[in-house]
Amino acid sequence: MKAVIIEGYGGKEQLQYTDRNMPVLKDNDVLIEIEATSVNPVDWKIREGYLKEKIPYDFPVTLGLDAAGTIKETGKKVQKFQVGDKVFTRPDITRNGTYAEYVAVDEGLVVKKPDNLSMEEAASIPLVGLTAWQCLVDFAGIKEGDKVLVHAGSGGVGSFAIQLAKSFGAWVATTCSTDNVEFVQSLGADKVIDYRSENFSETLQDMDIVFDTLGGDIQQQSYNVLKEKGCLVSIAMPPDQDVAEEYNIKAGYVFLEPDGEQLAKIGEKLENETIRPVVGTVMDLKDIKKAHELSETHHAKGKIVLKVK
Ligand SMILES: NC(=O)c1ccc[n+]([C@@H]2O[C@H](COP(=O)([O-])OP(=O)(O)OC[C@H]3O[C@@H](n4cnc5c(N)ncnc54)[C@H](OP(=O)(O)O)[C@@H]3O)[C@@H](O)[C@H]2O)c1
């Protein structure tokens, strides 16, 4: 099968569109023929070697952590799925990646694709959707009426998180650059802060939750806008617990775990159109170097989706 692999850590030149052996199916796995996958910043972070302490890989590595496609084969113990089912998934990060024509995934991580989504739209969801869910729902315990700040609302995670927070009845503020103000308003943001002309920490106060997707100074300044006993949840860097104690807030870092049950709940919100997918750019898998280049600018709008088939 065709796949994009790396044979060592490094820059974009490591990405090779080449032939690779078909994945080997375990008893609980389904074999998915992938129609679309997506690019997440973690893909180029893995490629660069930033996660090598956390996840020890054996080369060659097939990158990619989102897939939408059709089941072609089922392992002996598979119960939920049949050949021909159309599905989407965020597979286990330590196994075969999704920049490929086929992937083998444990059925517990696979969910039927909502009928109203194209394969490209479905491939844009699993990683960002699960990230936003685990931060806002599991860690922060979001509830109706909460005031939530989502940093970088026009990005992959942010564009999903705004909609997820709105679906729980929250009031949502977000940050983005001038060009994306109308776009994040269209996702439901109640207050938009253009970070090029305004500092969010001077505009906002008494927030219940801050979702930090950026880290650094942005995380430091985020303490100032939270109310006492509020919650700072970061996917960018672990918050300093001494500072969190000083401000009397709950603070933590989340690294997403794949979860089929949560993805099914996300699927329901997509099916009833409470949340819509935000596909900003579609490219062919062969154009992977350009796709990584765009992601590495830190200014991609919505998701970058790769057509495999
Ligand atoms: N821990 C985890 O499990 C986990 C999971 C998913 C993602 N992440 C990490 O979370 C980060 C965000 O992921 P992503 O997929 O959303 O990335 P992304 O799609 O590449 O984010 C790009 C967006 O960031 C915005 N942005 C850049 N600088 C900004 C600033 N100073 N203020 C506000 N917005 C800014 C850009 O908007 P403008 O063009 O308008 O500036 C752009 O739309 C990445 O570092 C990723 O690796 C971690």
Secondary-structure blueprint:
Elements: E1 2-6, E2 16-19, E3 29-39, H1 41-48, E4 61-62, E5 67-74, E6 86-89, E7 102-106, E8 110-112, H2 119-123, H3 126-139, E9 147-150, H4 156-167, E10 171-176, H5 181-186, E11 191-194, H6 200-203, E12 207-212, H7 216-222, E13 226-234, H8 241-247, E14 250-253, H9 260-271, E15 279-284, H10 288-296, E16 303-307
The structure holds NADP nicotinamide-adenine-dinucleotide phosphate (NAP).
Features:
309 residues; alpha/beta; Quinone Oxidoreductase, Chain A, domain 1; Rossmann fold; 2 domains; seven-stranded mixed beta sheet; six-stranded parallel beta sheet; 10 helices; globular; binds NADP nicotinamide-adenine-dinucleotide phosphate
Describe the structure.
It is a single chain. The protein is α/β, with parallel strands linked by helices. The chain folds into 2 domains: 2-125 and 277-307, Medium-chain alcohol dehydrogenases, catalytic domain (Quinone Oxidoreductase, Chain A, domain 1), CATH 3.90.180; 128-253, 3-Layer(aba) Sandwich (Rossmann fold), CATH 3.40.50.720. It is built from 10 helices and 16 strands. Helix 3 packs across helix 4. The structure holds NADP nicotinamide-adenine-dinucleotide phosphate (NAP).
Summary, kept brief:
With 309 residues, the protein is of the alpha/beta class.
Instruction: Please provide the ordered H/E string of secondary-structure elements.
Output: EEEHEEEEEHHEHEHEHEHEHEHEHE
Sequence stretches where pLDDT stays below 50 over 5 or more residues: none
CATH superfamily of the largest domain: Medium-chain alcohol dehydrogenases, catalytic domain
Text of the CATH class of the largest domain? Alpha Beta
Average pLDDT: 98
Q: Which sheet architecture does the biggest sheet show?
A: 7 strands, mixed
Identify the bound ligands.
Answer: NADP nicotinamide-adenine-dinucleotide phosphate
Radius of gyration: 19 Å
CATH topology of the largest domain: Quinone Oxidoreductase, Chain A, domain 1
Structural class: alpha/beta
The CATH level-2 architecture of the largest domain is identified as Alpha-Beta Complex
What's the number of domains? 2
Helix content: 25-40%
Strand content: 25-35%
* Alpha plus pi helix count: 10
List how many beta strands DSSP finds: 16
Shape: globular
